[in-house]
Design goal:
- Among the domains are: 1-59 and 288-303, no CATH class; 63-194 and 203-267, no CATH class; 365-413, no CATH class.
- By secondary structure, the chain is mainly alpha-helical.
- The radius of gyration is 25 Å and the shape is globular.
- The longest helix is centred in the middle third of the chain and has 35 residues, at 269-303.
- The protein is built from 26 helices and no strands.
- Pfam families: DctM.
- The chain crosses the membrane at residues 6-39, 60-81, 101-124, 145-168, 174-199, 219-243, 249-267, 279-299, 319-338, 350-368, 430-459, 480-500.
- InterPro entries: DctM, TRAP_DctM.
- It is a multi-pass membrane protein.
Length: 501
C-alpha cells in the first residue's frame, strides 16, 4: 500500500475512533503515530517525531495567548462584568417585545469581546440572563435557544481562541484576523436581534413584558459598563496602535480584568485559585488536541494527501465558488457531530491548500496599480514626466489596463503581479478563516449535537430539548443568511484590512 493510500485510509479509521467516543486529541495522535509507523516502516522515526513535535508545538509563542484569554474571561466574570453588561442592555431595550432576550444577545456580544470562548460565554451569560428571562415569562425553549446562540458570539467577536488556532495553522497574522472578524461579528449580533424580533411576533406568548425604567437609571447602568470598555479598548486599541502584540495584549487584558475583579471584591485567594485551575484544565485540553492535530497533520503531509487533493480539485475545473460552497456545506454537516476546535484542527490542513490554489479574484493588479498611481498624481505630476507619458498613464487607469514597467518607473511605484498574488493569498486566507469560523459557530447551535445547546439546557432542567431545537432554528437561519452575504460580498470582511493596512 502506497503512502498516499495509507493517508486516505486514515480518515475512516480516525472517524471510527471518534464515533467510538475516543477523545479527538487522542484519536488524532494515535492515527498519526500509527500512520507514521506504517509509512516509514520504522518506530524510531515515529517516536523521534513525537519528541520533536511536542517541543515545537508547545514552545510556540503564539499559543500562550490562549490561557491568557481564558484567564481574562474568568476574571471578567469575577469582576461582575457579565452582569453589568446584561443589566445595561436590559435597561435600554428590556421593555420592548423580546427586549430581555435582545439584551442577552447584546451582553453576550460585549462579553465575547473580553472572553474568546463560546462555551464560556454561553455558560457565563446563562447564569446571569436565564433567571431574568424566566422571571419575565419568557418561554424556556426560547430562552435557552437565545443564550445558546448568543454564546457563539464569544468565538466570533475578537478576541477568539479558534481564530488564534486558525492563524497558527495557516501562518496568518492574528491581529489581521481579529480585525476582519469585527464586521461579521456585529452582523451576527444584529441578525440574532432580528431573529428574536421575528420569533416573538410569530409566537407572542413566548416573551413576557416588563416596565421601562427611568432614563437616569439607564445611564447609571451604562456607566457601570466602563470596565468592559476600558479592557476592550486597551487590548484591541493597544494591538492596532502597535503598543503590543496580540499575545502581550491578552496578558494586559488578563491583568486588567484581574485588577478590576480585585477592586470589586470578586477576586479572593480562593477564587484566584479556582480561576487558575479552570484555565489550566481548559488550556491543557486544547493543547492536547493541538498536539494530536499536529502529529496527525504531519503524517498527512508526509503522505502528500493535502497536496494531491488540491491538485485533484483544481484538475476537475470546478469553479472556486463551487468548491468553497461545498466546503462550507461540509462544515455545516460536520458541525452537527463535532466541536468547533476539533473541526478546525482536523480539516484546515486539508481544505486550506485547496482554497489557496483557487483564484477568487479578490485582488486586481490594474486596480492596485491605479490606486498607487492616483496617490502619486494627487501630489502633483512627478518632475520630468512628459505630457505624452502622463496621458498614457491616465488612459491606462481609465481603461482598467495594467501599467507598463516604464509607466511605473516614471511614477516611482512598484506594483507587480507577484505582489498582487501575495495579497490575494492573504485576503483569501483571512476571508476563508472568517467564513469557516462562522459555519463552525453554526455547528455549536445545530441539532442534534450543538455543544452550546447542551450547556444552556443543563442550567434549566425543566426546559425540553425539543423546544430549544425548535427555537434555535431561527438563529441558525440568521447565520445561514449571513454566510451567504459574506460569501457573495467578501469586501464586507476585508474592508477593515483594506482601510488599515
Amino acid at each position: 500500500m502506497s503512502a498516499l493510500e495509507i493517508g486516505i485510509w486514515s480518515f475512516p479509521v480516525l472517524m471510527g475512533l471518534i464515533f467510538l467516543r475516543v477523545p479527538i486529541g487522542l484519536a488524532m495522535f494515535l492515527v498519526g503515530l500509527g500512520g507514521l509507523v506504517a509509512v516509514t516502516g520504522d518506530t524510531l522515526v515515529a517516536f523521534g517525531r513525537l519528541k520533536n513535535e511536542t517541543y515545537s508545538t508547545f514552545s510556540s509563542y503564539s499559543l500562550s495567548i490562549i490561557p491568557m484569554f481564558f484567564l481574562m474571561g474568568q476574571f471578567a466574570t469575577l469582576g461582575g462584568m457579565s452582569t453589568a453588561l446584561f443589566k445595561a442592555a436590559e435597561g435600554f431595550i428590556g421593555h420592548r417585545k423580546g427586549g430581555v432576550a435582545m439584551a442577552a444577545i447584546g451582553a453576550c456580544a460585549g462579553f465575547g469581546a473580553i472572553c474568546g470562548s463560546s462555551l464560556a460565554t454561553a455558560a457565563t451569560m446563562g447564569r446571569v440572563a436565564l433567571p431574568e428571562l424566566k422571571n419575565y415569562g419568557y418561554a424556556s425553549g426560547f430562552s435557552t435557544a437565545t443564550l445558546a446562540a448568543g454564546g457563539t458570539l464569544g468565538i466570533l467577536i475578537p478576541p477568539s481562541v479558534v481564530l488564534v488556532i486558525y492563524a497558527i495553522l495557516t501562518e496568518q497574522n492574528i491581529a489581521k484576523l481579529f480585525l476582519a472578524a469585527f464586521i461579521p461579528g456585529l452582523l451576527a449580533a444584529i441578525g440574532y436581534v432580528i431573529a428574536i424580533s421575528v420569533y416573538v411576533r410569530l409566537f407572542p406568548e413566548s416573551a413576557g413584558t416588563r416596565e421601562p425604567i427611568p432614563w437616569r437609571e439607564r445611564f447609571a447602568l451604562l456607566i457601570a459598563v466602563w470596565p468592559v470598555l476600558l479592557v476592550f479598548g486597551l487590548v484591541v486599541g493597544g494591538i492596532y496602535a502597535g503598543w503590543f502584540t496580540p499575545t502581550e495584549g491578552a496578558a494586559v487584558g488578563a491583568l486588567g480584568t484581574g485588577l478590576i475583579a480585585l477592586a470589586n471584591g470578586g477576586l479572593t485567594r480562593s477564587t484566584l485559585t479556582d480561576s487558575f485551575l479552570v484555565t489550566a484544565r481548559s488550556t491543557a485540553m486544547i493543547f492536547f488536541i493541538v498536539l494530536g492535530a499536529a502529529f496527525y497533520n504531519g503524517f498527512l503531509a508526509l503522505t502528500q494527501v493535502p497536496q494531491e487533493l488540491a491538485n485533484f480539485v483544481v484538475a476537475q475545473g470546478l469553479s472556486p465558488w463551487m468548491v468553497l460552497a461545498l466546503i462550507l456545506v461540509f462544515y455545516l454537516f460536520l458541525g452537527c457531530l463535532m466541536d468547533s476546535l476539533s473541526m478546525i484542527l482536523l480539516t484546515i490542513p486539508i481544505f486550506y491548500p485547496v482554497i489557496s490554489a483557487m483564484d477568487f479574484g479578490l485582488v486586481s493588479l490594474p486596480a492596485m496599480q491605479a490606486e498607487a498611481a492616483m496617490e502619486v498624481l494627487r501630489n502633483g505630476v512627478p518632475e520630468g514626466m512628459g505630457a505624452e507619458m502622463l496621458v498614457s498613464i491616465q488612459d491606462a487607469i481609465a481603461n482598467g489596463a495594467e501599467l507598463t514597467r516604464e509607466q511605473m518607473k516614471e511614477l516611482g511605484i512598484r506594483v507587480t503581479q507577484g505582489i498582487a498574488n501575495r495579497l490575494e493569498t492573504e485576503y483569501v486566507a483571512i476571508w476563508f478563516g472568517i467564513l469557516t469560523l462562522i459555519v463552525v459557530e453554526v455547528g455549536l447551535i445545530t441539532p442534534p449535537v450543538g455543544m452550546n445547546l447542551f450547556v444552556i439546557n443543563a442550567m434549566d432542567p425543566k426546559s425540553r430539548m425539543v423546544d430549544t431545537y425548535k427555537a434555535v432554528m431561527f438563529f441558525v437561519g440568521s447565520d445561514l443568511i449571513r454566510v451567504v452575504i459574506l460569501v457573495l460580498f467578501p469586501v464586507i470582511t476585508l474592508l477593515p484590512l483594506m482601510l488599515l493596512y
